[in-house]
Design goal:
The protein has 196 residues and is α+β, with helices and mostly antiparallel strands. Helix content is 21%, strand content 27%. It contains 5 helices and 8 strands. Strands 1, 2, 3, 4, 5, 6, 7 and 8 form an 8-stranded antiparallel sheet that branches. A hairpin with an 8-residue loop joins β4 and β5. The chain is globular. About 3% of the residues have low confidence. Its EC number is 3.2.2.-.
Length: 196
Protein backbone atom coordinates (compact mmCIF):
# COMPACT_ATOMS: atom_id res chain seq x y z
CA UNK A 1 0.00 0.00 0.00
CA UNK A 2 1.19 3.47 -0.81
CA UNK A 3 3.70 2.32 -3.43
CA UNK A 4 3.49 3.52 -7.02
CA UNK A 5 2.50 1.04 -9.72
CA UNK A 6 3.41 2.29 -13.18
CA UNK A 7 3.15 1.14 -16.78
CA UNK A 8 5.32 2.56 -19.54
CA UNK A 9 3.25 2.34 -22.73
CA UNK A 10 6.19 3.43 -24.93
CA UNK A 11 5.00 7.04 -25.10
CA UNK A 12 4.42 7.99 -21.49
CA UNK A 13 4.33 6.68 -17.96
CA UNK A 14 0.90 5.85 -16.58
CA UNK A 15 0.94 5.46 -12.82
CA UNK A 16 -0.91 5.54 -9.55
CA UNK A 17 -0.55 4.83 -5.87
CA UNK A 18 -1.62 1.33 -4.87
CA UNK A 19 -4.66 1.73 -2.59
CA UNK A 20 -6.11 -1.79 -2.66
CA UNK A 21 -4.70 -5.30 -2.96
CA UNK A 22 -5.70 -8.87 -2.16
CA UNK A 23 -3.49 -11.72 -1.00
CA UNK A 24 -3.93 -15.27 -2.27
CA UNK A 25 -2.04 -17.75 -0.13
CA UNK A 26 -1.56 -20.76 -2.36
CA UNK A 27 -2.72 -24.34 -2.45
CA UNK A 28 -4.67 -24.17 0.83
CA UNK A 29 -6.58 -20.99 -0.16
CA UNK A 30 -9.92 -22.05 -1.67
CA UNK A 31 -10.17 -18.72 -3.52
CA UNK A 32 -6.74 -18.99 -5.13
CA UNK A 33 -6.31 -20.08 -8.74
CA UNK A 34 -3.76 -22.57 -7.38
CA UNK A 35 -6.06 -24.12 -4.76
CA UNK A 36 -5.38 -27.81 -4.24
CA UNK A 37 -2.23 -27.61 -6.35
CA UNK A 38 -4.03 -26.74 -9.60
CA UNK A 39 -1.39 -25.89 -12.15
CA UNK A 40 -1.85 -25.13 -15.82
CA UNK A 41 -0.55 -22.85 -18.52
CA UNK A 42 -3.21 -20.36 -17.45
CA UNK A 43 -1.97 -19.96 -13.84
CA UNK A 44 1.74 -20.76 -14.33
CA UNK A 45 2.70 -17.21 -13.32
CA UNK A 46 1.77 -17.97 -9.72
CA UNK A 47 4.27 -20.85 -9.64
CA UNK A 48 7.16 -18.70 -10.86
CA UNK A 49 9.63 -17.04 -8.46
CA UNK A 50 8.53 -13.98 -6.51
CA UNK A 51 8.44 -10.90 -8.72
CA UNK A 52 6.97 -12.80 -11.68
CA UNK A 53 3.80 -11.41 -13.25
CA UNK A 54 0.60 -13.38 -13.37
CA UNK A 55 -1.68 -11.55 -15.80
CA UNK A 56 -4.95 -13.32 -16.36
CA UNK A 57 -8.30 -12.53 -17.90
CA UNK A 58 -11.94 -12.98 -17.06
CA UNK A 59 -14.35 -12.15 -19.84
CA UNK A 60 -12.83 -9.09 -21.58
CA UNK A 61 -10.96 -7.82 -18.48
CA UNK A 62 -7.33 -8.35 -17.51
CA UNK A 63 -5.89 -8.54 -13.99
CA UNK A 64 -2.44 -7.78 -12.56
CA UNK A 65 -1.05 -10.19 -10.00
CA UNK A 66 2.53 -10.58 -8.76
CA UNK A 67 3.91 -13.88 -7.47
CA UNK A 68 5.42 -13.32 -4.05
CA UNK A 69 7.04 -16.55 -2.86
CA UNK A 70 9.75 -18.95 -3.92
CA UNK A 71 9.36 -20.81 -7.20
CA UNK A 72 6.80 -23.60 -6.87
CA UNK A 73 4.94 -21.93 -3.97
CA UNK A 74 1.95 -20.36 -5.80
CA UNK A 75 1.10 -17.30 -3.75
CA UNK A 76 0.38 -13.88 -5.16
CA UNK A 77 -0.95 -10.41 -4.65
CA UNK A 78 -3.68 -8.99 -6.89
CA UNK A 79 -3.47 -5.22 -7.26
CA UNK A 80 -7.12 -4.13 -7.20
CA UNK A 81 -6.99 -0.31 -7.40
CA UNK A 82 -4.71 2.68 -7.80
CA UNK A 83 -5.10 6.39 -7.13
CA UNK A 84 -3.87 7.90 -10.45
CA UNK A 85 -0.74 10.04 -10.50
CA UNK A 86 0.57 10.41 -14.08
CA UNK A 87 -0.81 9.86 -17.57
CA UNK A 88 -4.33 10.60 -16.38
CA UNK A 89 -5.55 12.01 -19.72
CA UNK A 90 -4.44 8.82 -21.48
CA UNK A 91 -6.10 6.71 -18.79
CA UNK A 92 -9.36 8.62 -19.27
CA UNK A 93 -9.14 8.01 -23.01
CA UNK A 94 -8.42 4.30 -22.46
CA UNK A 95 -11.47 4.13 -20.17
CA UNK A 96 -13.74 5.83 -22.73
CA UNK A 97 -14.13 9.05 -20.79
CA UNK A 98 -14.53 7.65 -17.28
CA UNK A 99 -13.14 10.02 -14.64
CA UNK A 100 -12.66 10.17 -10.89
CA UNK A 101 -12.82 6.90 -8.98
CA UNK A 102 -14.45 5.10 -11.92
CA UNK A 103 -11.13 5.47 -13.73
CA UNK A 104 -9.19 2.86 -11.72
CA UNK A 105 -11.37 1.61 -8.83
CA UNK A 106 -11.13 -2.07 -9.68
CA UNK A 107 -8.57 -4.46 -11.11
CA UNK A 108 -10.12 -4.69 -14.59
CA UNK A 109 -10.65 -0.91 -14.75
CA UNK A 110 -7.05 -0.29 -13.70
CA UNK A 111 -5.68 -2.51 -16.46
CA UNK A 112 -8.05 -0.97 -19.01
CA UNK A 113 -6.83 2.50 -17.92
CA UNK A 114 -3.27 1.32 -18.57
CA UNK A 115 -4.37 0.18 -22.05
CA UNK A 116 -3.73 -3.52 -21.39
CA UNK A 117 -5.66 -5.67 -23.86
CA UNK A 118 -3.80 -8.99 -23.67
CA UNK A 119 -1.80 -11.31 -21.42
CA UNK A 120 1.40 -10.35 -23.27
CA UNK A 121 3.41 -9.73 -20.07
CA UNK A 122 2.16 -12.83 -18.22
CA UNK A 123 5.13 -14.81 -16.81
CA UNK A 124 7.55 -11.88 -17.26
CA UNK A 125 9.70 -10.74 -14.38
CA UNK A 126 8.51 -7.39 -13.07
CA UNK A 127 11.91 -5.81 -13.80
CA UNK A 128 11.83 -7.12 -17.40
CA UNK A 129 8.38 -5.69 -18.14
CA UNK A 130 7.01 -2.19 -18.76
CA UNK A 131 5.43 -2.37 -15.30
CA UNK A 132 7.16 -1.17 -12.14
CA UNK A 133 6.38 -1.04 -8.44
CA UNK A 134 8.50 1.64 -6.78
CA UNK A 135 9.72 0.10 -3.53
CA UNK A 136 12.03 3.03 -2.74
CA UNK A 137 9.30 5.61 -2.17
CA UNK A 138 6.03 5.38 -0.33
CA UNK A 139 3.11 7.79 -0.09
CA UNK A 140 2.07 8.50 3.49
CA UNK A 141 -0.92 6.35 4.41
CA UNK A 142 -3.06 7.17 7.43
CA UNK A 143 -4.71 3.77 7.86
CA UNK A 144 -4.74 0.40 6.13
CA UNK A 145 -7.83 -1.72 6.73
CA UNK A 146 -8.08 -5.49 6.27
CA UNK A 147 -11.38 -6.80 4.87
CA UNK A 148 -12.74 -9.98 3.27
CA UNK A 149 -11.85 -10.30 -0.43
CA UNK A 150 -14.29 -9.27 -3.15
CA UNK A 151 -16.38 -11.85 -5.01
CA UNK A 152 -15.19 -14.91 -3.09
CA UNK A 153 -17.51 -17.91 -3.28
CA UNK A 154 -19.54 -18.18 -0.11
CA UNK A 155 -19.62 -22.00 -0.33
CA UNK A 156 -16.58 -22.01 1.95
CA UNK A 157 -17.33 -19.42 4.66
CA UNK A 158 -13.87 -19.79 6.23
CA UNK A 159 -12.08 -18.47 3.13
CA UNK A 160 -14.87 -16.07 2.16
CA UNK A 161 -14.49 -14.29 5.50
CA UNK A 162 -10.69 -14.21 5.74
CA UNK A 163 -9.45 -10.63 5.84
CA UNK A 164 -6.96 -10.81 2.98
CA UNK A 165 -8.05 -7.65 1.16
CA UNK A 166 -6.15 -4.55 2.17
CA UNK A 167 -7.35 -1.02 1.45
CA UNK A 168 -6.24 2.51 2.17
CA UNK A 169 -9.10 3.56 4.42
CA UNK A 170 -11.08 6.48 3.05
CA UNK A 171 -9.45 6.52 -0.38
CA UNK A 172 -12.14 7.08 -3.05
CA UNK A 173 -10.39 4.79 -5.56
CA UNK A 174 -10.96 1.67 -3.46
CA UNK A 175 -13.26 -0.70 -5.33
CA UNK A 176 -16.60 -2.06 -4.22
CA UNK A 177 -17.87 1.08 -2.50
CA UNK A 178 -21.52 2.10 -2.69
CA UNK A 179 -22.58 3.46 -6.10
CA UNK A 180 -24.15 6.59 -4.57
CA UNK A 181 -20.82 7.42 -2.91
CA UNK A 182 -18.90 6.85 -6.18
CA UNK A 183 -21.38 9.16 -7.99
CA UNK A 184 -20.82 11.95 -5.43
CA UNK A 185 -17.04 11.62 -5.70
CA UNK A 186 -17.12 11.39 -9.52
CA UNK A 187 -19.32 14.51 -9.76
CA UNK A 188 -16.82 16.36 -7.56
CA UNK A 189 -13.89 15.23 -9.76
CA UNK A 190 -15.75 16.33 -12.90
CA UNK A 191 -16.30 19.80 -11.37
CA UNK A 192 -12.61 20.04 -10.48
CA UNK A 193 -11.59 19.02 -14.02
CA UNK A 194 -13.78 21.79 -15.48
CA UNK A 195 -12.10 24.37 -13.21
CA UNK A 196 -8.59 23.20 -14.14
Amino acid sequence: MGRTLSFNNGNELLSGTIVEAEAYVGVKDRAAHSYGGRRSQANEGLYRPGGSLYIYSQRQYFFFDVACQAEGEPQGVLIRAIDPLTGIDTMIKNRNGKTGPLLTNGPGKMMQAFGITSRKWDLARLEDSPFDIDINHKRKIEKITALPRVGINQSDPKWAKKKLRFIVAGNPYVSDIKKKDVKKITDLFDKILKIV
